[in-house]
Amino acid sequence: KRRDGRLPQTGFRPKFEDFAREYLNGPILAQKKVRTQNNERQAIRRWIEHLGGMRLDKIDVTPEN
Fold first, then answer.
1. How many CB atoms lie within 10 A of CB 16?
2. Contact 44, 24 (CB under 8 A)
3. Residues facing residue 15 across a β-bridge
4. Beta partners for 55?
5. How far apart are alpha carbons 9 and 57 in whole angstroms?
6. pLDDT in tens, 28-57
7. Distance in angstroms (rounded) separating the CA atoms of residues 38 and 4
8. What pTM value is reported for the model?
9. CA–CA gap between residue 18 and residue 26 (Å, rounded)
10. 3-class SS letters over the chain
């Protein structure tokens, strides 16, 4: 797997809030329409409140039972 480049990356993973702030200030969002930018900003703010200090590699989409 190592030779094929299929191993997961090792090392430090940023917190969601740090990653989100970088995205919000980056060029990808700036290229979108103003209404889309506003929608993404408000949605990401809610995710920051919910996930804030959680590291990206710890986020899981499966529901807890």
1. 20
2. yes
3. 55
4. 15
5. 10
6. 999 999 999 999 999 999 999 999 789 998
7. 40
8. 0.71
9. 12
10. CCCCCCCCCCCCCCEHHHHHHHHHCCHHHHCCCHHHHHHHHHHHHHHHHHHCCCEHHHCCCCCCC
Can you give the length of the chain in residues?
Answer: 65
Residue labelled with tokens 């703010």: 45
The values of phi and psi at residue 46, to 5°, are -65, -40
Structure tokens at 7: 């191993």
Structural tokens at position 5: 């480049």
**Whole-angstrom distance, CA of residue 57 vs CA of residue 22:** 17
Q: Can you tell me the distance from the alpha carbon of 52 to that of 54, in angstroms, rounded to the nearest whole number?
A: 6
* Identity of residue 52: G
Both structure tokens of 12: 């430090």
